[in-house]
Amino acid sequence: MAAIDETTPWIDRLCTALGVLVDYFRENRTMLTAAFHVATRETPQIDGREAVWLYNAYLSLLEDGIAAGEFRQVPADATVRLLINAYTTAALGIGTWAGRGDDPKLMAELDELVRGLVLKPLAG
User: pTM here?
Assistant: First the structure.
């Protein structure tokens, strides 16, 4: 969360936080495991301090963006889990992102996905 510039729009904050998460996953297996718990609902309750922190951090970013009027009204829980799942599997180069873990275009595509999912459409 330290990488987030709080003077930027909420969408930039969310995309930055998700991008940093990918880099962090590559270096920290504990947080990667926590992301799987959050993304897959492996247990009825979120397990582990890391998973709780991860979930709450992204939930807060999403809910704050909604409250600020920048994001559309999306189901917060499902959206957080979907985004963490997408970025986790992308970082690992598996699933939908199979073989693309080192693709330089991947982060731009993920950012575009996030923007399309959560941003309110422009009026006009």
Answer: 0.77
